[in-house]
Amino acid sequence: MKVLNTKPRDDGFYMPAEFSEHSGCILIFPERSDSWAYGGYKARKAFAEVCKAIAKSEKVTVCASFEQYENARYLLPDNIRVVEMSSNDSWARDYAPTFVTNGKEIRGINWSFNAWGGLENGLYFPWDKDDKMARKLCDLFDVDMYDMSGFVLEGGSIHTDGEGTLITTEACLLSKGRNPELTKAEIEQKLAECLGITKVIWLKNGIFHDETDEHVDNICAFVKPAEVVLAWTDDENDPQYALSKSCLDILENSTDAKGRKIKVHKLYLPKPIYVTEEECGGLDTMDFEPTRTVGERLAASYVNFYIANKAVVLPFFGDENDERAKKTLAELFPEREIIPIYARDILTGGGNIHCITQQIPAVK
Ligand code: KQY
């Protein structure tokens, strides 16, 4: 594995869309007791279901700590690879490499990770083990790595169509805790030279109360070039309404890198979901502070799905809109099986199925 000091775009590399073919997927086994209730007991079961659903159509690699290695091996079937690797938590989307390709070879990008805002408004400290994972994973998968460790970025804050367009949110990428020294134009420049994109669509916000500073992967995702799903509610009294409406207005007035108008499919949200006393009671404190409070609204959204080679792995919440989300996605992905996973025990950690996965593109 070589560390490259060139830029992906200059070498002819770009980030493909998630709906393109994958060679595999990476996840990290959960155990952090101030993120996952009751030491992650239920979360591990939910993660295992996600792994099994993805492993039906792509090779899954799970990173687990020394302490959880045997348990991971026990909960996961033999066709899933488990490797021991240290981490601070379990959000592969945000600290596994972002993979780029030139169609023949893949390479990884190592961004800087600072736990979604560093000392400004980050969610835990330290984050050093997470931040080292991209390099270790490039080594494990034997791919050369672009070193972008001076630039803070999480994989969940970007979505690409593989044809030159990237979607993100201003709330996240322009937040004070990430790259405050860079202007919006300079951030676009970095995204262009690393991901091979020529057009950024800037949404203002994401999901209400999303502790990542409103990652795009919880509100909006490409389903094919020039078509997205957008998390939606018709309830104008819900604080989410104004956020989703602003995204809709921006998307409907945008064209992509190829000049196409964007078609928006509304993906109706579940009813607001709040942290229960039982869930709160299972969480350890961090720096003497509780990480969740009873009644806190969680950032639940069906948009946080993972597009596997032959399936869409979709969070379910036990809500009346679960089946509606499944139907919407079945229409948009007629060649993929929609596999629902009851994901409340992932949601309470602060993200969902997309946030815990990172795809590796396939090459010919
Ligand atoms: O959604 C994500 N990409 C990560 C969420 C992190 C939450 C930490 N409690």
What structural keywords apply?
four-stranded mixed beta sheet, alpha/beta, 364 residues, binds 6-aminohexanamide, L-arginine/glycine Amidinotransferase, Chain A, 19 strands
Structure report:
This protein has 364 residues and is an alpha/beta fold. The longest helix has 15 residues, at 41-55. The strands form six sheets. It has a four-stranded mixed sheet, sandwiched between helices. It has one domain: L-arginine/glycine Amidinotransferase, Chain A (5-stranded Propeller), CATH 3.75.10.10. Helices cover 26% and strands 24% of the residues. It binds 6-aminohexanamide. The site of 6-aminohexanamide has 13 residues, from helix 3.
Topology diagram in text:
Blueprint: E1 3-4, E2 22-28, H1 41-55, E3 59-64, H2 66-75, E4 81-84, H3 92-95, E5 98-101, E6 106-112, H4 118-121, H5 128-140, E7 145-152, E8 159-160, E9 165-169, H6 170-173, H7 184-195, E10 199-203, E11 220-224, E12 227-232, H8 239-252, E13 263-268, E14 273-274, H9 277-281, E15 297-298, E16 306-307, E17 311-316, H10 322-332, E18 337-342, H11 344-347, E19 358-361
The structure holds 6-aminohexanamide.
